[in-house]
Amino acid sequence: MTATEETKVVSATLEMAAPAPTIFEVIADPSRQPAWDGNDNLAEAAPGQRVHGVGEIFRTRLTNDSIRDNLVVEFEEGRRIAWCPSNEGQPPAGHLWRWELEQVDESRTLVTHTYDWSQLHDAKRVERARSTTPDKLSASLEKLAATVESV
């Protein structure tokens, strides 16, 4: 991997005071994602789209009113989920959002949030991709922690 490619993968990690299954349930339910989106990009997602495996597609509406289809490309219940977004009805644009959970003990979990745009092939999305920094990922982690730690 070249240095240029390395800058196209950003991540942030936070230890949360909640068990992995509790946190994963919130991440895997797209209807709950807008509440803890640190990019302030997600407006809503219909209920009933809880993700259960690779190959599923869930749909979200963004704050600019556009619709995103999100193809699930990695899934391990309670531990890892990743999806590739695309414009409605189009193939994925080549970027990926990933969540990885590592249970520390029965009440604490290390959560890593990664944004990977190393395969992005839609030039119109590059500027937005560059603006997705570890700080923005940390904002999502902090909002997620506030959500799951209050349960």
TrEMBL record:
Pfam families: Polyketide_cyc2. InterPro entries: Polyketide_cyclase/dehydratase, START-like_dom_sf. Gene3D superfamilies: 3.30.530.20. This is Polyketide cyclase. It comes from Flexivirga endophytica. The lineage of its organism: Bacteria, Bacillati, Actinomycetota, Actinomycetes, Micrococcales.
